[in-house]
Amino acid sequence: MFRLFYTPGWFNGYDLLFEGIVLIIALLIAAYSWRVYRINKENKYAYFSLAFILVSLSLIFKMFTNGILYSFPIRETVATVLAPATGAHLRYADLFYRAGFFIQMASMLGAWLLIFLISQKPRDRLNKYFELSQIGLFVYLVLLISVVSNFEYVVFYLTSAVLLSLIVLNYYKNYLNTNNNKNAFSVLVAFIFVLFAYLCFAFVSLNSSLYVIGEVLLLLGFLLLLCTYRKVIRKK
Taking the model in full, what pTM does it have? Predict the structure, then answer.
């Protein structure tokens, strides 16, 4: 059975709980962002909502694929349902796992890329040919990296870490430009947590316990992001 990497056996299932909470948080942030967009019609909030919908989609596929790996009853049920497509003796089953991982990775990389673009200074991105061609190139690279990462998971996590590093840098600049605003600092710290979470995932082959640390950091980052975002929304 295909899997990206091996996690601590005792943590199997607990990670689904962590990711379930992160999924709820991502959906809440997406909903808050869309509500603000409906009020003031600022495009950045619509893009922010889309970014966290992509995060949610990625988490759904990750929880689904991991749930199949962890649970024998679920695995048997899915195998029965997909039997006509997977062929005799589940010969093509790995293709379905790889498709699930591909969607998971492409959605998450797309989300980080979108947040990176949002975190930059406002620019007329969607009305200039040069900007549109750049976005097209980014989409191609996201899809290509997602395919490659199915064979080398480290590529996905390191690429995510690079994008998150750029997001952290942009939000650090924003923090300095807002006269050390507390909310700006909280957003910065939240993305630092997420960045270190992905660095832990990238090097999980060195020690499987890094996966646990990464899940904890990811949850902390999203919780802090939700708390900060709610404060900002209330002010608006």
Answer: 0.86
